[in-house]
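Our preliminary data section would be incomplete without showing what the modeling component actually yields. Below, a chain of 555 amino acids is followed by its predicted structure, encoded as tokens that our downstream tools consume directly.
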Amino acid sequence: MTGLVIVGHGTRSAAGVDQFAALVERVRRRGDIGDVEGGFIELSHPPLTDAVGALVARGHRALVALPLVLTAAGHGKGDIPAAMGREQQRHPGLTYRYGRPLGPHPLLHDALEQRIDAVLASADRAGTALAGADRAGTWVALIGRGSTDPDANAEVAKVARLLWEGRGYAGVEPGFVSLAQPSVPAVLERLRRLGARRIVVAPYFLFAGVLPDRIVAQSAEFAAAHPDLDVRVAEVIGDCDALADLVRERYAEALAGDIRMNCDTCAYRVLMPGFADKVGRPQRPHDHPDDPVGHHHGHHQHGHGHHGHDHGSVAVVGGGPGPDDLITVRGRALLDAADVVVADRLAPTGLLAGLRPDVLVIDAAKVPRGPSMAQEAINEALVSHARAGRRVVRLKGGDPYVFGRGHEEVQACVAAGVPVTVVPGVSSAIAAPALAGVPVTHRGVAHDVTVVSGHLPPGHPDSLVDWAALARARGTVVLLMAVDTIAKIASVLIEHGRAPETPVLAVQDAGQPGQRSLPARLDEIGAVAARESVGPPAVFVLGPVVALTTTGQRA
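Predicted structure:
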């Protein structure tokens, strides 16, 4: 008979490890599965490699790998298949069928119901204020682990509804203890405002662990602050016959080829709002302390076609020319999913007000002649937070690859082994003229556009611009960062052949309520900019297209 390897995530809780081992032994004692082992992908002993190795040593070349997880999040979709892929490399010829996660399933709902009723029964026996309590007066807070995978969080909400239907509780509200909202205190406060006086907090967890302990602590803290409430915490599902029955059922499904994975709302395959950073991520095995191979040993993709999650990542996002609504859809989704945001001064900082309260915002402003965060410090912040397991967004103005030093940050992440992606943004070089009613190209007027940094004036030893060649060009020139150098630039362009009467438009604060456009001739633009106190951010566009100026958009 095909052997079964039960795969757990791992925990720092000795009690949780013992409960996992007890379940493996319970399944083994039943005798209807020929050979059973269990192991963890990280944190706990025994490691998965020992469990698979034991089965292979007993002659098994075909296995069922069953993820002992409640929801199909990153561990079930990516980490465990990746770890099994590594075992196939270790044991040539080894094949496995992958079982689906345990929940949601009626057996688990019944087990949750029993844990909740046990709390009510113990209160009744103790003669407390819950004496004679029935379900109709009991509200349940179902608390899941929480995930960066919306599909997994949605399953917890589904279980909450299924637990409520037909069981007679006053209501069941879902919540999470980590990575997702609403939090335990938030759910309890919601139930209090709904009029609850009796609340049972039901951890949607298989075994004891750090997070179930945190649920107990947070519930006790809330109860202490609200003495008019009776808040009780139920036990986790734990090692039991119902869980062993479900393991047996999932094993039989895998053998029959019926795993019924949910792909319709999988964030690793489908762009889900707020989770754009997950699509197409590679799977990498976890680094288990008892696994001699260690980490960084390739990628894997299992038959379901999912890609797993990494523990931390960086997205270098172009925020557009300034207005909050000109960021790309993908950039906004990554921002909504971020744990840390490192923001530039010219990024759409209005979006920061809509971030989750727990998001860390780091000001990476580079104010001309003012406060400035060193680029090395920015790079270090991106790398260190990603290595700590956080989703980091480097929010920049315009496009990160147009005078934005974005590639320097990408290079720093690549050198540190941190997953990094780039999201292009709408560059102010194109947007500012457009918002002022000027097309940078136009049929019969301009067939080319050159975007130039004016940060260094002509003649500066570090300047890479061929100003003489630029003066001979006939198309459009867009100057960025040229507020302090525009007079010198104009003079050199005229000196090398650009017509003094060439029209120029200075656009300041493009897209903002205070946007203003100042027209001038090339030989006058320096004086006009000084007289009108043009300040950054400002873009200068020069060439025959300026004559096409319309009223333009005012954001």
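The CA atoms of residues 224 and 231 lie 9 Å apart. The radius of gyration is 30 Å. Preliminary results of this kind motivate Aim 1 of the renewal.
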